[in-house]
Amino acid sequence: MKLYYFTDPMCSWCYGFSPVMKKLKESYPNIDLQIISGGFAPESKQKVTKEYKDFLEYHWRNVNLRSGQYFDHSMKFVSDSFHYDTEPSSRALVVVQRFLPEKDCEFLSLMQSAFYVEGKDITNAEVLAKLAKEIGVDKNIFLESFHSEAMKWKTAQGFQFSKQLGVKGFPTLLTFENGIVKILTHGFQSFESLKEIIEETLTTMSIPERVSEQSCSDISCGC
């Protein structure tokens, strides 16, 4: 079975969901998991004002309560030049997938920890290059690819694919077989809940008659 995981490095609920995804990969090594940066807020000019910081803190507390994931609320990444633009970190993931595709999940977690725990500015190319180096991608090679038009285009493709499949938010985990989209989870789930969904889906996909009855019209992407 192939699963598509639509996420964003700067989506707090995706950070909360990351231990669940790690356990999913460990528990189901035969599942083909493709991670796609879906584009939470690409090219955003949003500055972290007092009001926006309050907004972030409110959601971060909710994520912490549900997932147990730690957040550093000091937000050391905030500066006069910082915008909550999620395109650079999404592009960094695409670059790593080009050179070390087997480490994309690890790199995603590394970016999330750098941002939410260490307060690093993961919209900054140099910061992203240093993180990529930690998993084995040469800094200069990373930066050359990161700034290329090809990687910008490929990142935008991921955003477009997300829209085409009807993804309305992150995290979203779905299957896409024979033109049929089946959303397994939209939003945070515990691993126990997700495991039940995965097991049911694996059973369903092994029975052709039941698969053929599925329809996109039965899929709800609403929050």
Walk me through what this model shows.
- With 223 residues, the chain is α+β, with helices and mostly antiparallel strands.
- It has a single domain (2-164), classed as Glutaredoxin, CATH 3.40.30.
- 51% of the residues lie in helices and 11% in strands.
- It has a four-stranded mixed β-sheet, with helices on both faces.
- The protein is globular and about 55 Å long.
- Named at the architecture level, the CATH assignment is 3-Layer(aba) Sandwich
In total, how many beta strands? 4
Instruction: State the secondary-structure class.
Output: alpha+beta
Number of helices: 9
Q: What is the CATH topology assignment?
A: Glutaredoxin
Unreliable stretches covering 5 or more consecutive residues: 207-223
Mean pLDDT: 91
Distance between the termini: 25 Å
The largest pleated sheet is described as:
4 strands, mixed
Largest beta sheet: what is the strand line-up?
A: 2-1-3-4
CATH class assignment: Alpha Beta
Short synopsis of the structure:
The chain is an alpha+beta fold.
Label this structure with key terms.
223 residues, alpha+beta, Glutaredoxin, 4-stranded mixed sheet, 11% strand
Topology:
Elements: E1 2-7, H1 12-27, E2 32-37, H2 50-67, H3 87-99, H4 104-116, H5 125-134, H6 139-146, H7 149-164, E3 172-177, E4 180-186, H8 191-205, H9 208-212
Parallel strand pairs: 1-2
Antiparallel strand pairs: 1-3, 3-4
Helix pairs in contact: 1-2, 1-4, 3-4, 3-5, 3-7, 5-6
